[in-house]
Amino acid sequence: GGTVPLEQALQLAQKSKPFLAIFDHAGRPLHLGRTKRLANSAQRLALIATERGCTRPGCSAPATLTQVHHVTEWAKGGTTDIENLTLACDACHAMIHDGPGGWKTVAMPADSEHAGRTGWIAPRHIDPTGRPKVNDRHHAGELMAASLARLRDRTRPPVKWWSRP
Ligand SMILES: [Zn+2]
């Protein structure tokens, strides 16, 4: 769940058992197909590789402090398939419930900017819009790429309408 210099990562890798993570074209781990309630180690590793930490917006808990959560709850028929699993730290996991002030989790739709990631819906007294939001804290690379794209757009010379053919 953290970052280390490349040399240190290679030293750690020499003593480790390698695991292969396979991702689809959208960057989501492929279906690992288990119908047990608890996630298996492959599913946990895939979640750690993609989500890197707690998925509630604004939470900085690293993957080492999280547990696996069923986006559609197990008690409501949710499956232990990789598409239905996400990481949540203890404090955030406890915030998900159907009672007053409870948060909800959903898979972001295919047409959204964050397709397939876990969206968290805050209770109405926090966010009256009811729109799901994702956590960018563990995805600094995506934020950097978006910032650089905006910067490039700003520094690109404006297209002059009169010069078009
Ligand atoms: Zn959290």
Give a quick summary of the entry.
By secondary structure, this protein is an alpha+beta fold. The protein has 4 helices and 4 strands.
Low-confidence parts = none
Count of DSSP strands: 4
Heteromolecules bound: zinc ion
Structural class: alpha+beta
Strand order of the largest sheet: 1-2
Mean pLDDT: 84
The amount of helix comes to 10-25%
Shape: globular
**Beta content:** 5-15%
Largest sheet: 2 strands, antiparallel
Radius of gyration: 19 Å
SSE string, helix = H, strand = E? HHEEHEEH
Counted up, domains total 1
Distance between the termini: 52 Å
The helix count comes to 4
Structure description:
The protein is an alpha+beta fold. The protein is 24% helix and 11% strand. A two-stranded antiparallel ribbon has the order 1-2. The protein has a two-stranded antiparallel sheet with strand order 3-4. The radius of gyration is 19 Å and the shape is globular. The N and C termini lie far apart (52 Å). 21% of the residues are buried. The mean pLDDT is 84. Zinc ion binds at residues 54, 56, 59, 61, 88-89, 91-92.
